[in-house]
Amino acid sequence: MTDSANEPEQRAADPPAPTDLTELGKFTVVRRLGSGGMGVVYLAIDTANDRQVALKVLSPENTLNPTMVKRFKAEALAASNLKHEGIVGIFEAGSVGNRLYIALEYVEGTDVGQGQE
Hints:
- The protein is mainly β.
- It has 1 helix and 6 strands; from the N terminus they run ββββαββ.
- It has a 6-stranded antiparallel beta sheet with strand order 1-2-3-4-6-5, with helices on one face.
């Protein structure tokens, strides 16, 4: 993280922000961090609070599935009740239009799957 305005450095190896999502409400997407069965996680800037977040967004196809929407909301609720130094904190959860999101504490580091054989 850089000192100037708490904006992340864009390293040459980082993929550009995805074309499908460059902003979501008050969040400006910097780059894609990963994806899974529920959706995609982005590094984003919360412009209202001037901080980096890991922004988990339910995929558009899953927003049409009531079971997945229920699971996503349950995950947000469960995460908001967890407080431990070894667990990233949740800042907020909500929706912008039909896009559901969870804004989590962003912790810079390496992928736990990297380097394992």
